[in-house]
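To assess whether ligand presence alters the predicted conformation, the chain was also submitted together with acetoacetyl-coenzyme A. Input:
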Amino acid sequence: MKIKTVMVAGAGQMGSGIAQVCAMHGYAVILHDLKEEFVERGRQAIAGQLQKLVKKRRIAVTDMEQYLGRIHSSVQLKNAQKADIVIEAAVENIEIKKNLFAQLDELAAEHTILATNTSSLPITEIAAATKRSEKVIGMHFMNPVPVMKLVEIIRGLATAEDVYRLVREMAVSLEKTPVEVNDFPGFVSNRILMPMINEAIYTVYEGVASPEDVDQVMKLGMNHPMGPLALADFIGLDTCLSIMETLHSGFGDDKYRPCPLLRKYVKAGWLGKKTGRGFYTYDNA
Ligand SMILES: CC(=O)CC(=O)SCCNC(=O)CCNC(=O)[C@H](O)C(C)(C)COP(=O)(O)OP(=O)(O)OC[C@H]1O[C@@H](n2cnc3c(N)ncnc32)[C@H](O)[C@@H]1OP(=O)(O)O
Ligand SMILES: NC(=O)C1=CN([C@@H]2O[C@H](COP(=O)(O)OP(=O)(O)OC[C@H]3O[C@@H](n4cnc5c(N)ncnc54)[C@H](OP(=O)(O)O)[C@@H]3O)[C@@H](O)[C@H]2O)C=CC1
């Protein structure tokens, strides 16, 4: 089998980034979300990113048109029938993902691989919601997708060898570097990154320093490109909280307890950059 057509399910910041990179590397893309306005928002984000590349003379206007022409909108999950692989990038919630995978299992063609971009959730449990657990795999891109080189690839207990090979080859074809990791909460990336972000939030919560000063320390002292609180806002505080909860319940260890301030911000709807407010304010809301 050769992967030619990709459905990206969830047209938020990760889904639109994945769709953009797939289209730029020759794949036909079906960009799917619950409502047309969400798909349209994803398409606009992709068009904006491609326009920036045109301005920087990295691609021609004709390239941009060709890439955008490869992306088809979808609000009907049955369009998965046309895909060789579905890459799911809906919200970080196990029930939503299991439900989506059960539906995709019913609707997609027999050969279709079902991949999830989950940040932390168990691939084996998501796979168990389908009758094709050998074709379910984790394909974890980093944000922003067009820039970051890593893709973590995570096999579930039953993932078939040829499915692993095809997904790895696809990641390479997207000019990414795949790294295989085992199916444990948070994989490698978020098991290490997210406790650091959570600790940075505790540092603010306990009044040790302001968000600006915490970020300055990590940028100037540790050469991080972004401070941990700016990064939390960039990832989305809802996603950060979900990941901490997965680590906490998955390992049963209180060292992963989410900071109450993180919970409070999420309850307030302060989800970071995407809602215009988190540890910082943004004028894109
Ligand atoms: C939660 C999870 O499950 C896993 C995760 O993804 S965790 C998050 C992982 N990501 C990170 O840690 C990102 C950390 N931050 C960074 O690496 C950098 O700050 C950054 C790449 C985001 C921006 O870089 P910067 O030097 O501060 O800003 P800037 O000069 O504007 O951008 C650098 C390049 O990235 C591009 N870029 C920045 N943001 C972008 C975006 N959202 N989409 C596409 N391209 C983007 C810029 O166009 C620019 O490209 P060129 O150099 O080719 O011109
Ligand atoms: N943010 C990050 O830095 C990273 C996130 N991830 C993972 O990627 C996934 C998506 O994250 P992100 O893009 O940031 O989140 P966003 O909130 O930006 O986007 C999620 C999108 O999925 C849509 N959605 C929700 N439920 C469904 C469904 N049942 N079917 C189809 N679409 C649905 C949402 O619609 P609505 O607006 O209605 O909710 C929204 O458009 C998560 O699993 C996250 O953990 C992985 C790597 C990095």
